[in-house]
Amino acid sequence: MAKGVNLKSLAKELGISVTTVSRALADYDDVSSATKQKVKDKAQQLGYRPNHAARRLVTGRSSAVGFIMHGAYGDFRDQFNSRLIVSLSQALHDVAPNHDLIITTVPQDKSELDTYKRFVDSGRVDSFIVSRTQIQDPRVDYLLSQGVHFVTHGRTADAEQHCWVDTNAELGFRQATESLIQRGHRRIVFLNFPQQLNTAVLRQSGYQAAMQAAGLPGRMIHCEFGTTCAYEPVRAMLAEPLAPTAFVCASDVYAYAVLQACLDLGLMPGKDVSIFGSDNLPPVDSNRPQLSTLDVSFSAVSHAIINLLLDQAASSRSVIKHKLFDYHLLERNSTGPCPANVKT
């Protein structure tokens, strides 16, 4: 920071009050857009950098966003989590480069809610991004009771009471299942998330709607997070006399486990068994068949989350907004026609 450039000297240079300068830099909605731009241009010209400790004392705001990751729903080794965090960090840098994303993990046997309470009580962050939402989510209930700004990545049973960004899982998984039915598959298994997650209910609804419309019996198992939970059940099913000919997976993490089980049994994905995943996560091995998947832009989702979060902070009143993204089917070579020699 240029020597001597602070809020007071910046205000003197502009001929306006320190309060106005402070609120303009913080994007408060009671300051005009023209004044905000004037202040920011002058701040950049003079090399001003905010003193976050002093600003927090004056405004009570930390310019930090919290993201708390519970071990029950994966960790940094989970490709979905790592990709989401990278996208959220980039979106925050693009939209509000003076803000920080504070990430912490909670061991599986510890209380996630206690960590939220500690963050709120200490004033460490101004707002939260809540991921992998439950149907009845105690984190959402707590943050609503405390009047803390937050946006959920995913919906809850109380979705009309809070801001959220989500993907249209019900439609996407119906379309994925229908695409397999159209290829002649009849024994289609669905590998779903843990049943307490709201998105698991939506994914299941889409799968069941497609199966019921075709007059087919469904078969579903709930998997914990990680590849190991899906691998053994899938391998056992593939050894059955009337084995599944296709799998729809709530995550590409599960789909890669199915792919591995097929290869270990000498089955060719896309020829002997079809596999449909979700989230278009990077392949574990580039030499293996490319995975058919439901794709959504992590960047677009993350920018929507950050923008909703900052809109709350800048608004003088509580405004509940939602954003729903559609999945796009990417059909690659892990899906194909049902084998002609399969007994029905």
UniProtKB/TrEMBL annotation:
Pfam families in the cross-refs: LacI, Peripla_BP_3
Signal peptide as annotated in the record: none
Highest taxon, organism lineage: Bacteria
PROSITE patterns: HTH_LACI_2 (PS50932)
InterPro entries: HTH_LacI (IPR000843), LacI/GalR-like_sensor (IPR046335), Lambda_DNA-bd_dom_sf (IPR010982), Peripla_BP_I (IPR028082)
Transcription regulation among keywords: yes
Key words of the record: DNA-binding, Transcription, Transcription regulation
Residue ranges occupied by any HTH lacI-type domain in the UniProt entry: 5-59
Keyword Transcription: yes
Protein name: Substrate-binding domain-containing protein
Native species: Marinobacterium rhizophilum
